[in-house]
Write a structure and sequence with these properties.
alpha/beta, binds ligand PBG, 10 strands, eight-stranded parallel beta barrel, TIM Barrel
Length: about 325
């Protein structure tokens, strides 16, 4: 074959569309819009000042006042919503703080609903682990195992407390069997049919939740492998998605994100409802740590991970970089 220009070899030249910044900008397939990002926020009961989280540089446990400021910043950046987590002063075996209207998460939810409830979808973590003294996502039976059905009753009560506080979307992250159906039924029976459910359908027992345990001062001894999924299991993740859909989830979640893009892509291909992904604390921490050492280009790496998660099929992404990315994207 001749190498004469014009002889038509190579016949296909994909590099044409990559040749200038203008071309690349015009042909980019995937962007993460501010509205597709959800910022997780931690609120600590009794805190006088925001408390830094050592393993998540740049992320803090908020006071009521610093929460308000952060909510304004989030709304100003045009993100889609916030997911609230509470850190109570006192914990007990059944996680009483979770269902107490004066419990920190419910107090924070009322603040968020009042401050930014029109601009953002205010969301709450519906799980007992922040509130139990043993740190598990449910209550324990006499032998010390997580009692699925007794936990569902706690989740029903927690759902009502959160709905009454003004949460628009309940994030069911506890991985109990039947949790979506139980919470849906409780909400509807109490007249909260407008409150939506985010089923953490395919939530894996991941080492990448490590920094989160510091963030919420978790009391957990042991692990969550008797309820969260084995990281090796893709088919089981798909089944959990199907079950949450059948039970009435309005949105389903895959978590963590970056290590589970195959599970995410499969869910996105089949789900009739939005599929979200959670870029978890360990994904944040490892990139921040490498960037702090100059081992990785921080902003490019953040954008690359978010874009990859979206490209794999996420309709929205929970990310600790939500506001930062939104401000950059909005300025482009
Ligand atoms: C459970 C919950 C966890 C996370 C979100 N919801 C912790 C866990 O399952 O152990 C982890 C989020 C993260 O690591 O960023 N309430």
């Amino acid at each position: 074959m001749s190498s004469h220009p014009g002889a038509g070899f190579p016949a296909v030249r994909p590099r044409r569309l990559r040749s200038t910044p203008a071309w690349r900008r015009l042909t980019r397939e995937t962007r993460v819009a501010p509205a597709e990002l959800v910022l997780p926020l931690f609120v600590r009961e009794g805190a006088a000042e925001p408390v830094p989280i050592a393993s998540m540089p740049g992320v803090v446990q908020h006071t009521a006042d610093s929460l308000k400021a952060e909510l304004e910043r989030a709304a100003g950046a045009g993100i889609g919503g916030v997911m609230l987590f509470g850190i109570p002063e006192r914990k007990d075996a059944v996680g009483s703080g979770a269902t107490d209207p004066q419990g920190i998460l419910n107090v924070a939810t009322r603040i968020a609903a009042a401050e930014v409830g029109d601009a953002l979808v205010v969301q709450t973590d519906l799980c007992l682990d922040e509130f139990t003294d043993h740190g598990h996502c449910g209550v324990l039976d006499a032998s010390g195992r997580v009692d699925n059905d007794a936990t569902l009753q706690r989740y029903r009560d927690m759902a009502l407390a959160q709905a009454e506080a003004g949460s628009a979307l309940l994030g069911l992250s506890g991985m109990m069997d039947g949790q979506v159906a139980a919470v849906r039924e409780a909400l509807d029976a109490a007249g909260h049919s407008d409150v939506a459910i985010l089923g953490y359908a395919a939530k894996y027992a991941s080492a990448f939740y490590g920094p989160f345990r510091e963030a919420v001062q978790s009391s957990l001894q042991g692990d969550r492998r008797s309820y969260q999924l084995d990281p090796a299991n893709g088919r089981e993740g798909a089944r959990e998605v199907e079950l949450d859909l059948a039970e009435g989830a309005d949105i389903v979640m895959v978590k963590p994100a970056l290590g589970y893009l195959d599970v995410l892509a499969a869910a996105a291909a089949s789900s009739p409802v939005p599929v979200w992904a959670y870029q978890v604390s360990g994904e944040y921490a490892m990139l921040e740590a490498a960037a702090a050492r100059g081992w990785i280009e921080r902003e490019r790496a953040i954008e690359e991970t978010l874009t990859s998660i979206k490209r794999a099929g996420a309709d929205a992404i929970l990310s600790y970089w939500a506001v930062e990315h939104a401000l950059r994207e909005g300025a482009r």
